[in-house]
Amino acid sequence: MDVIYHPGVFEDITEAVNWYYKEDPTLVKELAQKIDSGFHKITDTPETWPNHKRGFKKFLVDKFPYIIFYKIKTDHIKIFAVAHTSRKPNYWLKRVK
């Protein structure tokens, strides 16, 4: 199944990487790997992960405080956010059209 990323996803990742780079640069590579692994797991088994409100599903990124929010469509998966679990809750909902 094809995966479509909302452009804001890349902003989310950039923000996370920049924060970790300032706090502990040794974690940046691992963060990127965990997010990438999450994208692959979602693509491989999209129904596996728990439901969230408004038809979204959520994937908790291993070891880091981030959730990947996505929707399963008929012919693709759309990823809307890689959101920090405690900062700016639901900011990404404005990306839904």
State Rg: 13 Å
- Within CATH, the superfamily carries the name RelE-like
Oligomer classification: single chain
Record field, number of beta strands: 4
Strand content: 15-25%
How many angstroms separate the termini?
Answer: 21 Å
Number of domains: 1
Largest sheet: 4 strands, mixed
Describe this structure in words.
The protein is an alpha+beta fold. It has one domain: RelE-like (YaeB-like fold, 2-Layer Sandwich), CATH 3.30.2310. 35% of the residues lie in helices and 25% in strands. The chain is built from two helices and four strands. The protein has a four-stranded mixed sheet. Helix 1 packs antiparallel against helix 2 (28-44). The longest helix has 17 residues, at 7-23.
Give the secondary structure arrangement, pairings included:
Blueprint: E1 2-5, H1 7-23, H2 28-44, E2 57-60, E3 66-72, E4 76-84
Parallel strand pairs: 1-4
Antiparallel strand pairs: 2-3, 3-4
Helix pairs in contact: 1-2
Q: What are the key terms here?
A:
alpha+beta, 97 residues
Question: In short, what is this structure?
Answer:
With 97 residues, this protein is an alpha+beta fold.
